[in-house]
Every structure is written in structure tokens, then in C-alpha cells.
Amino acid sequence: MPKQKTNAKFIIKQSLKVFRNKGYHSTSMADIAKACGLLKGSLYHYFKSKESLMTAVIEHLHNFYKKEVFAQAYDEELGAKQKLQLLIDISERQFFSSESGCLMGNLALETVSTVPEFSEKVKQFFQDWMDAMTHIFAEKFPLAQAKQLGRESVAAIEGAIMMMRLFNDRQFLIQAHQTILQKFNQTPLSTTNNNP
Predict the structure, then answer these.
(1) Closest CA to 24 of 124, 117, 92, 97
(2) pTM for this one?
(3) Is the pLDDT of residue 193 over 70?
């Protein structure tokens, strides 16, 4: 069998699959090496520890979402409702095709108390997601209301992903997205009622 040609990017992508399926704590460097077709010791030429590898995975995933997903919210060629529908469509494609849900959400719950160095990076991912949703809602709603709707939307999607996995029922995520669209279609609160 020919030796697997590899680099850090390949290891990160393979690791992402393993971490998504097994979780952070249940994944060993041996699991990752096997997924990469490498000897365990070879991984340490690229990453000094499982923590440093997971950090690279978080950064890789965050950068992907920033460029390929969240960026859609800032596309000035599209109207706000089109942007929202596009993010919903991407969300459904992503999470319907993954049996393990949202890696960032899973990681936040799994490591918040045990590996706190991941928390800030995961929080920044969710902040960027909330900012993207806020930007869309702010095209129609006052900023304070848009921020609240952005936060509620991300929380609803993450909760729906968990319930979808638990009950093996896609309707949880579909319904969460329908609720977000319904909120978008509501009449904005009067700007005179909002505190600055």
C-alpha cells in the first residue's frame, strides 16, 4: 500500500469528521491517525497535542462558515428575505446530511467546563452567526429588536438540531426555520418604543 500523502489541512479535514462523529473526549490521536492513514506518531509532526489539533479544527470550521455561510448575510445583491432563506437552505442541507448535528454546539456543551480554552473560539463562532442573523433582521427591524431576533434565531436552530437528533425527526429544524421566517414577516416594533 502506498504511503498516504498528507499535510496539516488534510489532517484537519479528517479530524473534523472524527470529532463530529465521536466527540472531543472520546476521540484519541490513534483514531485520527487511522482516519488519516498515518501512524499515530506522525500526527505529532503536524500538531503537538489533541488540543492544538482541535483548535485548528475549530478555526478551520469557523473560517469556512464565515466565508461560505455567514457572508451570505452581507451580500448587498440580495434582499433581506432572500438572505434569510439562503441561510435557512444552507442550514437544512448541512444539518440534514450530518447525523451528528452541529460540531460547534456539541463541542460547546462537551468542553465548556473541561477544556475552557476552546470556549472563546466557539463563542466567537456563535457571535459571528448571531451577527449575520442580526444584520439580516436589521434591514427591516430596529437594531435592538434585530439583535434579539438574531440571538433567538441561533438559539432556536441549535435547540432544534439537538431535538432533531434526539427524536430522529427533521421537523424540529424545519419548524424552527418556519418560525424564524414568521418572525421576519412580523411588523417591526415602533422605533419610538425602543430604548437607544
Answers:
(1) 117
(2) 0.89
(3) no
